[in-house]
Specification:
The chain is of the alpha/beta class. It is built from 17 helices and 14 strands. The structure holds uridine-5'-diphosphate-glucuronic acid.
């Protein structure tokens, strides 16, 4: 099929490249010429395992090209995906201006029957909004259909998630348009759920909100575990073994960040508000998430007797492993707080250092975890990178000024850490030593 994908962020680029790898003629569209140049040279503009190889293969097979013209690309395509950003506005509701602009330009390119697919994460009613914009530009109603096809890929495993999805959700008014999408995805051998536009849009928000709720639930439990001396890892294993609950997304720690959960939970709350429901449960989900990092900072601050004149090593900056994305990363809250109270930060990350450096030039950036803990008063595990899991903890303890380790992602075992000479605190397992250290 002839496909255009407007927007070359995570969702757009991965979708475009995967569809090209399945043998479709795909045009990836963006107004950022620099990004397009990189893609057309076979380079991935974002860090995502496997993406660059797939771009190169699709380019050399002749299935992938790039364009900065939405109008021309829409004209040349049977199906046009909208995959542009919907960042949160001040009040938490998503800003749909990019979706609106793109819809208007697509309308200008439609000459024959075209399916316009909304892949951006959008609130209920956005499918109708896009259809109305296209109609308002004079495109006859029988010349296009709007379909909602939300995306469930995760950063860091985006290619695999797209090639092997758990489910494909298609929301459409016209069953024939839905069927076109079913055919497009047929090579993935995955069940497609066909529903109406509003339900498809709601499924996306509700899925991300539910996953965030699951994490906040286990994080709330982690606070109780610390108080009563229980272990949240064992508790999560015991709870998750119930197949009705499941073990995924029950890993306690510093909480969720990234470009999706924070935005979509707030989006779900604002959508609910719009339809007359006060989703208080999700407000609490956000509060619990915020409290995880705040509590850890309090613990470190108490033990160090304040941050002034202290050096804290951060192991990890990205919002999660296998990405250089730092949007709503917990590391940024830690950096702001520690620097703001007169402390110093020495940080490392396998891929996200350059991105953070632009915003926080006062942090000392290090090449290795060993370098970042050297002379530090405390170390914090912020991101669960595999690269940090097998570190020589005795060496870490030896390099630090005070061998204090705060594990915000629970990647080490207490026995191992303590045997290595570290004073070790992991979120969700027993109370930390709160006695202030001498300055
Ligand atoms: C999330 C969803 O998982 C995807 O299905 C969805 O497509 C995507 O948002 C989106 O809407 O685009 P992503 O934000 O890439 O994907 O990352 P996740 O793997 O879901 O992790 C989100 C956050 O939760 C991270 O900060 C991670 O560290 C944290 N997390 C995850 C936990 O703290 N505990 C867990 O058990 C799992």
């Amino acid at each position: 099929m002839k496909i255009a994908v407007v927007g070359t962020g995570y969702v757009g680029l991965v979708t475009g490249v995967v569809l090209a790898s399945l043998g479709n003629d795909v045009i990836c569209v963006d107004k950022d010429r620099e990004k397009l140049d990189r893609i057309s040279k076979g380079q991935a503009p974002i860090y995502e395992p496997g993406l660059e190889e797939l771009i190169q293969r699709s380019l050399s097979d002749g299935y992938l090209r790039v364009s900065d013209s939405i109008i021309d690309s829409a004209r040349a395509s049977d199906i046009v995906f909208i995959a542009v950003g919907t960042p949160p506005a001040e009040d938490g509701s998503p800003d749909l201006s990019a979706v609106r602009e793109v819809a208007a330009e697509i309308a200008a390119g439609i000459e024959s029957y075209t399916i316009v697919v909304n892949k951006s994460t959008v609130p209920v009613g956005s499918g109708d909004l896009v259809a109305n914009i296209i109609l308002s530009k004079g495109v006859p109603a029988d010349r296009f259909d709007v379909v909602s096809n939300p995306e469930f890929l995760r950063e860091g495993s985006a290619i695999r998630d797209t090639l092997e999805p758990d489910r494909i959700v298609i929301g459409a008014k016209n069953p024939e348009a839905a069927q076109m999408l079913v055919e497009l995805y047929a090579p993935l051998n995955c069940k497609a759920f066909i529903t109406d536009l509003n339900t498809a849009e709601l499924i996306k928000y509700a899925s991300n909100s539910f996953l965030a709720l699951k994490i906040s639930f286990i994080n709330a439990l982690s606070q109780i575990c610390e108080a009563c001396g229980a272990d949240v890892g064992d508790a999560a294993a015991g709870i998750g073994a119930d197949s009705r609950i499941g073990s995924a997304f029950l890993h306690a720690g510093l909480g969720w960040g990234g470009s999706c959960f924070p935005k979509d939970v707030r989006g779900m709350i604002s959508t609910s508000q719009q339809f007359g429901y006060d989703f208080r449960l999700l407000k609490e989900v956000i509060d619990i998430n915020d409290s995880q990092v705040a509590r850890l900072l309090d613990r470190i601050e108490n033990r160090l007797g304040g941050f002034a004149g202290r050096t804290v090593a951060l192991l990890g900056l990205a919002f999660k492993a296998n990405t250089d994305d730092i949007r709503e990363a917990r590391s940024l809250i830690l950096i702001e707080h520690i620097l703001g109270r007169g402390g110093k930060v020495q940080a490392c990350d396998p891929v996200a250092v350059d991105v953070v450096r632009r915003f926080y030039p006062d942090v000392t950036y290090c090449h290795t975890p060993y370098e970042s803990v050297t002379g530090a008063d405390a170390a914090v595990v912020v991101t669960e990178w595999n690269e940090f899991k097998q570190l020589d903890l005795a060496r870490i303890a030896g390099l630090m000024k005070q061998p204090l380790m705060f594990d915000g992602r629970r990647i080490y075992s207490r026995e191992k850490a303590e045997r290595a000479g570290l004073e070790y605190f992991a979120i969700g397992s027993s109370a930390p030593n709160e006695a202030p250290l001498p300055t």
